[in-house]
Design brief:
The protein is an all-alpha fold. It contains eight helices and two strands. It has one domain: Arp2/3 complex 21 kDa subunit ARPC3 (Orthogonal Bundle), CATH 1.10.1760.20.
Length: 181
Amino acid sequence: MKIKNITLTAVFAALCAVCAWITVPFAVPFTMQTFAVFLACLILGGGQAAVCLGVYLLIGALGVPVFAGMNGGVGVLLGPTGGYIVGFVVLCLLYAGLTRIFPRKKPYKILALVIGLAVLYLFGTVWFVVRYTGGGGIGFTAALMKCVVPFILPDLLKLALAFLIADRTEAVVKHILQKGA
């Protein structure tokens, strides 16, 4: 990786942490973490975004409070909602694969992120059911109603915001990476 790519990866890992700390009060409060993941995919590309999220997970696993609620440590990742955090890497890898298969046009990028989000929800919910309840305390449908349904609209709004920002900054980022600041 070039120094500029490493720097962008670090900047986006930091952005993920900052966005995890931003809580938007709503009927069910949500963070801006998925916004940062979407933006990383759109600006860095799925592969580099996956590396970025891997760095973010590693930093958090080491105990640095980069996760929602200013939490950190392996316990957060292994806890009931850890699947959603680990699922960010899955989303990035899926986005990378889908954008290699389909043309890198705007509708396909959006579709790849929506599919990635659906897989993130599935991955995180399965993790939640297994970790939180040992598979017996709460059913999959009840977990979806608790952990996914309240977040669908906010996550789609965050995706739209990330897309608008990425669309307006993509040329600047490419210029920086190719020619320098």
